[in-house]
Design brief:
This protein is of the alpha/beta class. It is 53% helix and 18% strand. α5 links the parallel β2 and β3.
């Protein structure tokens, strides 16, 4: 009697037929983004965040400070997801910093909204370093990592688009 595993191992065509679609999915950008950012929310300090900002190679960088318990922050998150999808090909990066105490809530929130950019858990050190007194707070950096705008409260998608377009033209 031939077992399926023996047949599978010895049949090159069958292996190719089954493994090729799996390999293609694993190499796809959708899977890669899922692996990079889904469920990978880690607690960071101000030094780590500062190095992430400094080391970013993007033309425009947005840092979004938020929390799941903040109603305006939940509205802002969908705006950033749209902006990220629209401007990622034009060298926009976004870093989300959640001030949630419960990592699981933040992970569920990120997964529920389909956020594709990196999100970290901030602490008091981060809030003091960046002088975050209210959330949502948005910091916008140019390609030289100069802070060009700070927004406290909601920022509309149209306003963000105008800012990003202006910074991309200046490069």
């Amino acid at each position: 009697m031939i077992r399926f595993s023996d047949f599978f191992i010895n049949n090159h065509y069958l292996r190719l037929l089954i493994l090729t679609p799996i390999a293609a999915f694993c190499l796809s950008s959708v899977f890669q983004e899922y692996l990079l950012f889904a469920n990978t929310i880690e607690a960071v300090d101000a030094g780590f965040l500062e190095s992430e900002i400094t080391d970013s190679k993007s033309e425009v960088l947005i840092v979004d400070f938020w929390a799941t318990y903040c109603a305006p922050c939940t509205k802002q998150a969908s705006v950033f997801s749209n902006i990220y999808a629209k401007y990622k090909p034009k060298e926009l990066s976004i870093i989300g910093v959640s001030f949630d105490f419960d990592k699981d809530k933040a992970v569920k929130f990120v997964n529920k909204l389909g956020i594709k950019y990196p999100v970290y858990l901030g602490n008091e050190d981060v809030s003091f370093h960046y002088d975050i007194r209210s959330i949502p707070t948005t910091l916008i950096y140019d390609s030289d990592r100069k802070l060009v705008q700070t927004h406290v409260g909601l920022v509309g998608e149209d306003e963000l688009s105008q800012i990003i377009e202006g910074l991309l033209k200046d490069k």
